[in-house]
Design brief:
It contains ten helices and four strands; from the N terminus they run αααααββαααααββ. It is mostly helical. It folds into two domains: 5-134, no CATH class; 139-275, no CATH class. This is LINE-1 reverse transcriptase like.
Length: 277
């Protein structure tokens, strides 16, 4: 699941989100309530997307077919009925093409797409090229090439577990060393509750077109639906401020291996990063 920005432009999207969001009532901690509401909305949006956007290619073909028929009639009859129908079909065709391009752009993960020219063939090639480049099909381990999928996974897991497991050792104790301290006013400011303005500013400062985290909701979704979801989010932030605890699901992220150089071969040629939406 991943939010597609073209959903946000659909006239029924906000109404669907609002109805679904407020129709679900969950009891428990605010973090649990927010998690369950997002989970339920995710299931609802899957069905909504299937009903509204799954027939994009068929809709495009039907528009083209009808437009061709109208063009044939246009040669012999330029009446107002044909003209009105032709304009309506042209508008619907452009709308469906925009939806299709948005779906491809989302998959291609090209940040500059917001300002780039529309080129469906380019995005198809970019998507294929990116998938090929991102695939880690083989790795060199102890002077031999590992090619089996399960063995590659095991080698990667063992390598980073070994390198990132903290070893026990005697730590230095810095007794008697004075450090600069925050003033009481600064301390109060930093430990005060989150305000709605602070939360909103943090969300609006993030690029909504960046790929989302494991939950699939990007910042464009939060910006578009803020008036609908903000009370639950603010309640969650207030709860976190009180107990300083985040459930495991809220800290979930994608782990990705970034090549340090061209044509990497060994795991030391990759840098692991955590991608948090």
């Amino acid at each position: 699941f991943r939010v597609n920005n073209c959903w946000l432009e659909h006239p029924d999207f906000l109404r669907f989100v609002e109805n679904h969001w407020f129709s679900n009532n969950f009891d428990g901690k605010k973090a649990f309530v927010l998690k369950e509401k997002l989970k339920s909305l995710k299931d609802g949006l899957r069905g909504w997307n299937r009903d509204v956007f799954s027939l994009v290619n068929l809709n495009i073909d039907n528009c083209v077919k009808e437009l061709n028929e109208i063009e044939e009639l246009w040669a012999s009859d330029t009446g107002s009925v044909n003209q009105i129908r032709r304009q309506a079909l042209s508008h619907d065709f452009r709308k469906q093409i925009t939806v299709k391009e948005s779906l491809i752009k989302l998959k291609s993960w090209l940040k500059w797409i917001k300002d780039g020219d529309s080129n469906t063939r380019f995005f198809h090639h970019s998507l294929i090229s990116r998938r090929r480049k991102n695939q880690l099909e083989t790795i060199k381990w102890n002077d031999r090439w590992v090619t089996e999928v399960d063995e590659v996974k095991g080698v990667i897991k063992n390598h980073f577990e070994h390198n990132f497991t903290e070893r026990s050792f005697h730590r230095l104790v810095l007794n008697g060393i004075e450090f600069d301290k925050l003033s009481q006013a600064d301390n109060v400011l930093l430990t005060d509750r989150f305000t709605e303005e602070e939360v909103r500013e943090a969300i609006w400062s993030c690029d909504g077109n960046k790929s989302p985290g494991p939950d699939g909701f990007n910042f464009n979704f939060l910006k578009a639906c803020w008036d609908i979801v903000k009370n639950d989010f603010l309640s969650f932030f207030n709860e976190f401020h009180s107990n300083a605890f985040l459930p495991k699901g809220f800290t979930a992220s994608f782990l990705s291996l970034i090549p340090k150089k061209d044509h990497p071969q060994e795991l030391s040629d990759y840098r692991p990063i955590s991608l948090i939406g």
